[in-house]
């Protein structure tokens, strides 16, 4: 009897102890013909993708299990290729979701899974993910944002059909597409602002959620900074108390330290550049006072950069009071000079000699080109993403012609 009582007491004590609890992911995909494949659980790191676990998918079913320290965004990567050298188009599928230590189910139609490559006219239905409260919160945000993201996608299609394709086909420039582009970019900017306002509201309402933290980091991690310093400080304050003393807040602090000098309203950053004669000069010596100035970071090897140059040629002729400074990140000087000659770029030209991977571009936090920034007449960061119709809109509103 005493032995039974002791066993009961030990069982009760064990039940009261904190349990090591992990996650399980049960996947079920349906469809007429589902190939076998491998399923990988992956985590995106700053410079690489880390594979956490893998499983075999048979008859549309797979199972993964493990344990993580805290809820985070992971990627479910489904590979149905029989040969790794085979094209992933139509064979590899990805779904991002928030994983946490709980029983999770993932169900979906195999033929409608999000693919690693976008395919026109292919129906895409994200799988239904249940069991993760963090994912549920993220899904609520996506539902809130859907009307705006759908509208932005519709505008992207209109850009392609009404602006980009016709303009490229009109080799003799019989029609001016400027007003069409301005109209579309105006609508786009309006929806983008509404989208951002919804994201901001979500962050303020859910400051302790990793979803809110990730959304704030996303707002701060664009190619250019579209907030002023006061806005950056305020937005960071929304989550500071909830994440105080954590590595996540330290990471956000580092991000803020990088982008704050580039905030709208701050003075441009002077850097060393090389002119076409091979002489090292200060950027400040090239920037005229009292004018709006476009800093156009580009490269000879960048297709979109080269495609934008004919537009800049037109802008340079039409707006004499608007200054353009094209700053190449070409590492090879001869390739840069060749492009200048081919493109007939008659405005101010300079080059960052250590290229896009060097230390100089880091002062502008440039990780890709083209990057186009407008300075106001006092040399302060004024507008970002100033290419194509967005630049046309700014110029027309500023110079009234």
Would you write up a description of this structure?
- The structure is a single chain.
- This protein is of the alpha+beta class and 401 residues long.
- It is built from nine helices and 15 strands.
- The chain has three domains: 22-134, Immunoglobulin-like; 143-261, no CATH class; 272-399, Glutaredoxin, CATH 3.40.30.10.
- 39% of the residues lie in helices and 22% in strands.
- A five-stranded mixed sheet has the order 13-12-11-14-15.
Short description:
The protein has 401 residues and is of the alpha+beta class.
Strand content: 15-25%
Number of helices: 9
Percent of residues in helices:
25-40%
CATH architecture tag of the largest domain: 3-Layer(aba) Sandwich
What is the CATH top level name of the largest domain? Alpha Beta
Mean pLDDT: 93
The biggest sheet amounts to: 5 strands, mixed
- Inertia-based shape: globular
CATH homologous superfamily descriptor of the largest domain = Glutaredoxin
Radius of gyration: 26 Å
Q: Count up the domains.
A: 3
String of helices and strands: HEEEEEEEEHHHHHEEEHEHEEEH
Distance between the termini: 98 Å
> What do we call the CATH topology of the largest domain?
Glutaredoxin
Give the low-confidence spans.
1-19
Give the topology, please:
Blueprint: H1 2-16, E1 23-30, E2 37-44, E3 49-57, E4 61-66, E5 72-79, E6 92-99, E7 103-109, E8 128-130, H2 133-169, H3 178-205, H4 210-220, H5 229-240, H6 247-259, E9 272-274, E10 280-282, E11 293-298, H7 303-318, E12 323-328, H8 333-343, E13 348-351, E14 371-375, E15 381-384, H9 388-399
Helix pairs in contact: 2-3, 3-4, 3-9, 4-5, 5-6
């Amino acid at each position: 009897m005493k032995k039974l009582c002791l066993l009961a007491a030990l069982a009760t004590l064990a039940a009261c102890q904190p349990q090591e609890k992990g996650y399980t992911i049960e996947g079920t995909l349906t469809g007429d013909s589902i190939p076998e494949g491998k399923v990988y659980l992956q985590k995106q790191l700053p410079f690489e993708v880390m594979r956490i676990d893998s499983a075999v998918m048979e008859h549309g079913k797979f199972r993964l299990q493990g344990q993580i320290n805290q809820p985070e965004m992971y990627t479910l990567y489904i590979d149905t290729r029989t040969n790794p050298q085979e094209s992933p188009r139509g064979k590899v599928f990805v779904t991002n979701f928030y994983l946490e230590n709980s029983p999770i189910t993932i169900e979906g139609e195999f033929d409608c899974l999000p693919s690693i490559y976008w395919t026109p006219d292919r129906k895409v239905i994200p799988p239904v993910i249940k069991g993760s409260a963090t994912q549920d919160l993220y899904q609520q945000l996506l539902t809130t944002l859907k009307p705006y993201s759908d509208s932005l996608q519709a505008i992207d299609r209109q850009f392609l059909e009404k602006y980009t394709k016709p303009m490229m086909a009109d080799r003799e420039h019989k029609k001016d597409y400027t007003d069409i582009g301005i109209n579309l970019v105006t609508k786009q900017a309006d929806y983008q602002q509404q989208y951002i306002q919804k994201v901001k509201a979500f962050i303020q309402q859910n400051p302790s959620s990793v979803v809110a933290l990730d959304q704030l980091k996303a707002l701060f991690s664009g190619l250019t900074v579209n907030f002023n310093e006061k806005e950056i400080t305020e937005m960071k304050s929304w989550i500071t108390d909830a994440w105080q003393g954590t590595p996540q807040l330290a990471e956000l602090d580092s991000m803020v330290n990088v982008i704050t000098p580039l905030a709208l309203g701050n003075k441009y950053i002077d850097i060393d550049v090389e002119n076409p004669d091979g002489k090292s000069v200060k950027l400040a010596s090239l920037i005229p006072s009292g004018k709006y100035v476009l800093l156009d970071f580009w490269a000879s090897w960048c297709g979109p950069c080269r495609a934008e140059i004919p537009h800049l040629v037109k802008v340079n002729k039409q707006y004499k009071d608007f200054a353009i400074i094209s700053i190449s990140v070409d590492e090879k000087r001869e390739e840069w000079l060749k492009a200048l000659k081919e493109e007939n770029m008659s405005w101010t030209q300079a080059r960052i000699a250590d290229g896009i991977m060097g230390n100089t571009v880091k002062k502008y936090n440039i990780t890709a080109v083209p990057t186009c920034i407008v300075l106001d007449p006092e040399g302060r960061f004024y507008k970002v993403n100033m290419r194509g119709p967005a630049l046309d809109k700014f110029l027309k509103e500023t110079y009234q012609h």
